[in-house]
Write a structure and sequence with these properties.
Shape: globular
Structural class: alpha+beta
Order of helices and strands: HHEEHEEEEEH
Largest sheet: 7 strands, mixed
CATH architecture: Roll
Number of domains: 1
Strand content: 35-45%
Helix content: 25-40%
Number of strands: 7
């Protein structure tokens, strides 16, 4: 059984994933300030509000969706403080107009209506570009942070 705030969180996530997958502010609203998001492969993590804002922002700005390139929820369940969702994700990498596809499973822990831990498992077998992008993700996030900081000065 789910607490009402966790039930609302799950429903909000499912709606967001399918109908607004590029909504950075709405995505960040689902995460606690101390949330840890771990991605396998390559075995990287992002912790805390600012780190997650940079990671999620880079991920969302690097892709676009349309009627073909979208997120399709395949399975999900929730019990107590745990939520698991499996989905197929197709997107177009912006700038290079490259179509990519991946299967993803998120295993999440919820506390007080927010995700405080997310473990993302990505099947990279459908796209070498996804595998490469995940390996380069920490560098891409860091470079983007430097650029953002420089543009403010």
């Amino acid at each position: 059984m789910l607490a009402p705030e966790n039930e609302a969180l799950v429903q909000n996530y499912l709606d967001l994933a399918v109908n607004a997958p590029e909504d950075l502010d709405r995505t960040l609203e689902l995460l606690s300030d101390e949330c840890v998001w771990f991605i396998t492969p390559p075995g990287i993590s992002f912790t805390g509000r600012e780190s997650l804002r940079r990671f999620v922002g880079v991920a969302m700005r690097s892709r676009s969706h349309d009627l073909v390139s979208k997120i399709e929820i395949r399975n999900w369940f929730a019990e107590g403080d745990h939520f698991c969702v499996e989905y197929h994700h197709e997107a177009t990498i912006t700038g290079v107009h490259l179509h990519v596809a991946e299967d993803v499973c998120l295993v999440c822990h919820m506390q007080a209506g927010k995700f405080d831990r997310i473990h993302e498992y990505v099947d990279t077998s459908q796209s070498g570009w996804i595998a490469l992008g995940l390996k380069l993700l920490p560098l891409i996030v860091q470079v983007n942070s430097w650029r953002t900081a420089r543009s403010r000065h």
